[in-house]
């Protein structure tokens, strides 16, 4: 699987919330895309992932 | 009582005609104080990947008074329409806001927007329900096409992003303003309040600045100065400037000047 542009080790049974926990990411402050599905932090589902999934985890930062 | 000269974008009204970015500030306290001093009601933010292994966040949202401010996420860094659409959807998921400053910029050297890609992305994003404010080169033909596509504003550049060189594209910006049916927001390149005043005097509906504030020696003082510059420019636009002339035109009466006899000067 790919997480934020980098290859990431996949383990069968891994869920989206489980991945965030593994990465020490607080869901409250991020949004996540799994392929073409987009989730606000507060509504990230605990869906099962596959080894082909492309995952993007983003936050707000300063910009103009 | 409604403000007599409010700015309306996509049905929302604003009393300030100055929009500000949140990038490049030394710290969040200075950024927040600068935003307060600017009087801005619309602030831009960027969307970036979380750095894995570095939990937490930079606290930007906590530093912004979201009861008072309209967030305007941008697609800065996107090189293609598809990247911009994807970032837009992430931005909407992240903020709950469907306003978007659309940037499609393939070349980081000059940071000049891709007109074809911007139009294509705008069409897709309007179709997805976004309120799209596209950053463009000052091109009246493109601006009309973006209006027809349903964009809420057009945002022509004054000069390259972050250059602080002022309203170098003045004549071209004027061609965008003259035929626009949506608000025109001059964005990028403004360095000092007189640049902003010139844009408003020209008829721009608003301006957006970031670097000019964040890189000022005193960002809060500069934010206050830009607020005044925008107010002065708008007031001047509404008052209507005098016609420019090639030659001089005396302000005092030319007849009846007390004179001494001088044989070398005609009476």
TrEMBL record, chain A:
Gene3D superfamilies: 3.10.20.30. It comes from the Bacteria. Pfam families: ThiS. Signal peptide: none annotated. This is Thiamine biosynthesis protein ThiS. It comes from Deinococcus maricopensis (strain DSM 21211 / LMG 22137 / NRRL B-23946 / LB-34).
UniProtKB/TrEMBL annotation, chain B:
The lineage of its organism: Bacteria, Thermotogati, Deinococcota, Deinococci, Deinococcales. Catalyzes the rearrangement of 1-deoxy-D-xylulose 5-phosphate (DXP) to produce the thiazole phosphate moiety of thiamine. Sulfur is provided by the thiocarboxylate moiety of the carrier protein ThiS. In vitro, sulfur can be provided by H(2)S. Belongs to the ThiG family. Pfam families: ThiG. GO terms for molecular function: thiazole synthase activity. One of its GO terms (biological process) is thiamine diphosphate biosynthetic process. InterPro entries: Aldolase_TIM, Thiazole_synthase_ThiG, ThiG. It catalyses: [ThiS sulfur-carrier protein]-C-terminal-Gly-aminoethanethioate + 2-iminoacetate + 1-deoxy-D-xylulose 5-phosphate = [ThiS sulfur-carrier protein]-C-terminal Gly-Gly + 2-[(2R,5Z)-2-carboxy-4-methylthiazol-5(2H)-ylidene]ethyl phosphate + 2 H2O + H(+). It is found in: Cytoplasm. Keywords: Cytoplasm, Schiff base, Thiamine biosynthesis, Transferase. The active site is at 101 (schiff-base intermediate with dxp). Its main location: cytoplasm. Its EC number is 2.8.1.10. It is an enzyme of class 2 (transferase). It comes from Deinococcus maricopensis (strain DSM 21211 / LMG 22137 / NRRL B-23946 / LB-34). SUPFAM superfamilies: ThiG-like. This is Thiazole synthase. Residues 244-267 are annotated as: Disordered. Homotetramer. Forms heterodimers with either ThiH or ThiS. 1-deoxy-D-xylulose 5-phosphate binds at residues 162, 188-189, 210-211. Residues 8-253 form the Thiazole synthase ThiG domain. GO terms for cellular component: cytoplasm. Pathway: Cofactor biosynthesis; thiamine diphosphate biosynthesis.
